[in-house]
Design brief:
Layout (H helix, E strand, L loop, with lengths): L13 H5 L7 E5 L6 H11 L4 E5 L6 H8 L5 E5 L5 H14 L3 E7 L13 H29 L2 E6 L5 H17 L4 E8 L7 H5 L2 H4 L11 E4 L6
Parallel strand pairs: 1-2, 1-4, 2-3, 4-5, 5-6, 6-7
Helix pairs in contact: 2-3, 4-5, 5-6
């Protein structure tokens, strides 16, 4: 007869169950210059022991984030590149592979959407928003697929608090990517601070190491909302 303890066995929380080592490979973070969230994500992932490469626009600076990464016992690299340019993206990912090793994690922090209501939005503003957000995510994801699928593991995480049509496109891209890459051990998820209530960047970034851990292999195609505002 099996002995039953006097006290019921404590169940591990879902968050605790997800904790564990990250998948192998270098972490690439785009948008580390945006609103503190990209920087927070990069530092959080470096704290797990992952080498980190930042891809920032030439017009922006990742100096502060690089300074924070330099204080950690990992290798780090900053690359100036336009994520809407396929040649620049391919060259940046190749440089990451040759300097730090093939990417195993891609975190894309998507910048703000075009401002203003639809009736006031110019053609140029709309096209720039789609180009910067959807095209950038597509090109970065495509560029890291070869090394990820070759080793049979990888994590793609998109972080955005944009609303409207661009958000729908990001959600659709994430779910399609998750379905297509599931046979190769690659997951894709979207972390969505709620529009109007993005919350503390450090708290939002704390979720990302859980999603890139090996224990999160079954978590894919999800939109995880963060914040206290009304669900969208």
């Amino acid at each position: 007869m099996r002995h039953r303890p006097d006290h019921p066995r404590r169940r591990r929380s879902p968050v605790t169950a997800l904790k564990g080592p990250a998948v192998p490979g270098t972490t690439i973070v785009t948008g580390a210059h945006l609103d503190g969230l990209g920087a927070a994500a990069a530092v959080r992932l470096a704290e797990t022991g992952s080498d980190v490469a930042l891809i920032c626009p030439a017009s922006a600076s990742c100096t502060d984030t690089m300074r924070r990464l330099a204080a950690l016992p990992v290798r780090s690299l900053a690359i100036a590149a336009d994520v809407t340019d396929p040649d620049a993206v391919a060259a940046a990912v190749q440089r990451v592979s040759s300097s730090l090793g093939d990417p195993g994690v891609l975190v894309t922090v998507v910048g703000p959407a075009a401002p203003g209501p639809l009736c006031e939005l110019s053609d140029a503003a709309w096209e720039a928003s789609v180009e910067r957000q959807l095209r950038g995510l597509f090109l970065m994801t495509r560029a890291v697929l070869d090394p990820m699928t070759r080793v049979g593991s990888g994590r793609v995480v998109t972080v955005t608090d944009v609303d409207g049509a661009v958000r729908a496109g990001l959600v659709g891209f994430t779910r399609t990517t998750a379905l297509e890459l599931a046979p190769f051990g690659v997951t894709a998820n979207l972390v969505a601070p709620r529009p109007g209530d993005p919350g503390d960047p450090e708290q939002v970034a704390a979720l990302i190491p859980l999603l890139v851990g090996r224990a999160a292999a079954a978590v894919s195609g999800q939109v995880i909302e963060v914040g206290a505002g009304p669900a969208s």
